[in-house]
Structures are given as structure tokens and as C-alpha cells.
Amino acid sequence: MRARLFSQDGDLIADSNLLGGSDSQVQVEELPPPDDPGASAVRSIGTLYDHIMRLLTGSQNLPLYQESPQQQAKDYEEVLQALQGEEATMIRRDSGNRLVLSVSVPVQRYRQVVGGLMMTKGGDSVERAVRDRRSDILLVFAVALGVTVLLSFYLSHTIAAPIRRLARGAERIRGSSTKANVIPDLRNRNDEIGDLSEALIDMTEALHARLEAIETFAADVAHEIKNPLTSLRSAVETANRVEDEEQRKRLMGIILDDVQRLDRLISDISDASRLDAELARAESERIEMARLLDALGEIHKPLCEDKGLTFQIKVPQQDPLTVLGLEGRLGQVFRNLISNAISFSPDGGVIELRAWRETDPILGPVVVATISDQGPGIPDGKLQAIFDRFYSERPQAEKFGTHSGLGLSISLQIIEAHKGTLIAENRPEGGACFIVRLPAEE
Fold first, then answer.
1. Which of the 8 DSSP states describes residue 64?
2. Using the 8-state DSSP alphabet, how is residue 364 labeled?
3. Which of 56, 98, 120, 299 could covalently link to 102 via disulfide, CB atoms 3.0 to 4.6 Å apart?
4. pTM of the complete model
């Protein structure tokens, strides 16, 4: 800190930097530190930093601090203001680009200005403090930038890159006709990306299964329709050449049977083709299976009595056996199973329809319904094959072509769409039994 006192006339009276007063020739100055290569490098970097910051902040345009050999008040604007009775401050830079801070106040006696006191100080401490704060800010910025860059690389590696792989896999599936699964298997990640990978893999497998089912269904349809068409064509060609009236009538009967068989095939095929879309779109509702099975039993009892059969219903009256599903489609399943039981039952046979609630180790609480008969049962090795499309194992007395072979296949598809199971087994005492399990609702 340097103090200088100027008189009212503007002359320098005293200077704390001069020993012995203003007339002394001994000047006190602080010597610079000794040269150190490391310190010089640091000072050079600091000087460059200060220069850049002065350019950015505009402090490069500060007035230059100069001292004349004979200092006067007129050399310092703030001293002139102090001699006029006002306090004043000034910021300058010396020849070494260092800040020089000064403040001047009037020296008064009985409200009369008799001089001006000027206090000056180097701004090194201020610049160091500002530099330290800026360095702290730059350090925080550098750390934040580094963390951001590292986090960006991490997120890119763990999220963006796997999603790009999944997207490329999905794109390859769109343009591929093979069954090969090109979706990256990321299920071991146990996070949202793993869930997405699992969903895409399951979707791809379901898509391939659906495409294969469509291809197989189309081939089966073509084969099943071709048979009656071939028979129909042969009968029509023969009828044109036959002159015997009896033979002509038999041929016309064959033609009528083939046309009816084609009509049944087309109706069942249309129903099977619409089934998937209907099950996907329709809203499930609460169904009381006890009421539904009672109604179906009452409908089929007269038909059984006409054929000399006994129809027994064993459904609990206190438990409604509620399930979620489509009542019309579930009714279609049980109508088909009851019709099959009637077809295979011998004269005087008993058809039994039972339902109850139990706990399945896989499905949990389920409603179980069984339809059993006393017929010949299912041939060995055909317990699964009877659910194949267009498979038909009918009684010998039944007229050929009466059934299309799609009934059990459609029934299995409906039950599986309701997240249930449909199986067939032979009873030890004779006859077949179809068992339906559906998830139960409280």
C-alpha cells in the first residue's frame, strides 16, 4: 500500500515510498523473486492466460499508470477530484500490465480542503483471486465435460449401440425370407434393453410360426379342396357319357355330396381363417361356465334321447365357475366336443358332462370341464393327431365327407387363445374323454 499526500496547490508533500519525505532520493521497491525455470514457465502461462482474459473482458483498454519525476496533483485525475472535496477511485495498468488501484479522499480542516490523500495498491492480489476463481470454474467445467464425455461413451456403448443392433436385426427380418433368428440375444442384461430383445425374439418366433402355419394351412386347404373337386370333375365327365338313368342318378348324388362337402369345407376354412383375428380383437368378458354348460346340456338332451343316449350333467350349483373369455367361442368348443361324443356313442350309451374348480401346478386356479363317452375311444398313437387340421377319424356308419376335420383343431386354437389346455385321453372302462382347463376368475 502506497500513500501520497498532495497540498492544495497540487504539490507532492509526502510519499510512503520515499524515505525521509518527498525530497529524499532513497526509493523503496520490492525486488522480484529470483529466476526459477519452473516458475518462469508458470509465469509465462499465467501471463498468457491474463492476456487472453483481458482481451475477453475488455480490461486491456485501461489507462496507463505513469509517474513523472516531479509528481503533481494534475497527473492524477482522482487527486484533482479530492482537492475539490470529492472522493474518487481509479483503475489503471502499469507498463508491466499489472493493475494499479487508487483512491483519493480530501484532507479537510473545519470543512476546508487543505490537501488530498491518494492511496494506491497493486492489483496482483485481486487478479490472483479472480484467476483462482476462474481456475476453479474451469476445473469444474473440465471435470463436468470429462464426466459428460465418459457418460456419453458409456450410454452409447450400453444403450445406443444395442438398440442399433436390434434395429438392424429387425430390418434384416423385414427383408429376409429365412427362419434364422437375426435378432441379437441380449436377454442376459436383465434391463429394459434385455426385455426389448426378448420381446423382439418372441415376436420373431411367433411371426415365423404364424407364417409356417399359414403356409401349411394353405397347402392343407388346397389338398382337401382338390379331392372333392377331382371327384366332382370325374362324376360330371362320366355323367355325360352314361345313358343308364339309374347310373346317372347315382352320379348326380355323388355330385351333390361333393358340392355339399365343398360347401362345408369352405365354411369351416373361412371360420378358421377368421378365428385368429377375432380372438385378437374381441374384448374378454366374465363367463359363468356353470350356466353355459347347463344351457348346452339342456340343448343336447333331446338330441341324445332321440338317439337312445343318456346325457348326464354334473356341474356345481353354488360355484358359477367364472372364467374370462369369449362366450360364443367357448360355447363352440363344447358344442363340438358334445357332437363328437354323440357321434361315437353306441346305442344306450352315456355321455357325461362334468365341471369343477381345482388348482393346477402350472395354470394355478382353473375351471376343469370334461366330456366323456362310451364309444370305441381314440386309436392308439392318435391322441395328439386328432387335433391336426383336416384329420378325420369318424364312425364307420357315418357318411363320408360329413365333417371337414377342422372341428378339434379350431377347438384347440380357441382354448389356447384363452390360455387354457385341451387334451384327449381314453377311459380305462372304454370310451374317450376330452379335458378342458381354463384359468379361473375369483
1. B
2. E
3. 120
4. 0.53
